[in-house]
Please model this.
Amino acid sequence: MEQIRPFPPTDFIDQAEEEESIRLIPAPDLKQWVVENYLTLGGLLHNPDHDHISELIDDDETFLAFAWASSAAVSKKRMVLGQCEKVMFNVGGWKKARQEQQMRDWFGFVPVYLITIDTSFCERANDREFCALLEHELYHIAVERDEDGEMIFSEHNGLPKHYLGGHDVEEFVGVVKRWGANKDIKRLVEVANNPPFVSDLDISKCCGNCVIN
Model:
C-alpha cells in the first residue's frame, strides 16, 4: 500500500496568491493520515501519549478536525505554522450562528478541537519537520491526570477529561543564560541529548513515496 504524506490542493494555494489573502480549507485527508499514523495502535508514528485522543475520536469522530491555511499567521511578532484550538464562538447577534455554520459547511459538524497547518511551511518542510509540527499540535490536546499520573475520566460519559494544554517548557534564553536552567529546562536538555524514538525509516514509510509491505 502506498502511503504518502498529505499535501494541500494547488488550486487553493493559487487562489490565495491571486487574492493576496490567507485562505483556509478543511483537510479531511490530513486528519485521516494523522489518525492512521499517530493515533492508531500499530501505526508507524503511534504515540501512546495521544491514546486519550484516540479514545475520544473512537467515541465521536467530530472531536477533532484539521484545516489547511494558505500561509502562516503572525502572533506576537512570530510566525505561527500550526495551531491547535478548542473551538469556541463569539456570542451575540448572529455571530455564533455564522461561525457554527462555517464549521458545518467545512466539516459537516462542529469539532471540539481544530488543528490548522500552514501549507507554505509544509511545501518546503522535510518529512521530519512536517511530522514534528503535527505532533506538536496533538500534544496541545492534553488530558487531566491525578497525583499518580493516571488519566482522569469524566463521570458523565466515562471518557478522558481533556483540555487545551500549554507547552512543557516556556522560558527566555536570557533567563537561562543569567540564572541557569530550571528542572523543566534540564529535563528538556536531557531528552534532547538522547536519540529520537522515531527513526528516519519509520518517517519515510509514512511520508515518502515508498511502498509499505
Summary: Strands lie at 24-26, 64-69, 73-75, 78-80, 82-86, 113-118, 141-143, 162-164.
